[in-house]
Amino acid sequence: xxxxxxxxxxxxxxxxxxxxxxxxxxxxxxxxxxxxxxxxxxxxxxxxxxxxxxxxxxxxxxxxxxxxxxxxxxxxxxxxxxxxxxxxxxxxxxxxxxx
Length: 99
Description:
The protein has 6 helices and no strands. By secondary structure, it is mainly alpha-helical. Helix 2 (20-31) crosses helix 4. The chain is elongated and about 35 Å long.
């Protein structure tokens, strides 16, 4: 599944305004589909800090996108499995395989 072009443009613009750290965090959560604990290990954080940072990152994206929010915040692998593969695809294209 791919996002319509106008949604991709909005997503790219919003992701571009995030810090490199926030883009990496979103990449790990959506594309790599890691849990918050796995993301924390990858980034050298505690799980609690990874959770707080993901809330900040998604809050910033929501603020930047306004009403154009087209994903559910990732909390567990189960929710990710039911999540939006389009966002994972687009995050991979934007952030690259190395984030």
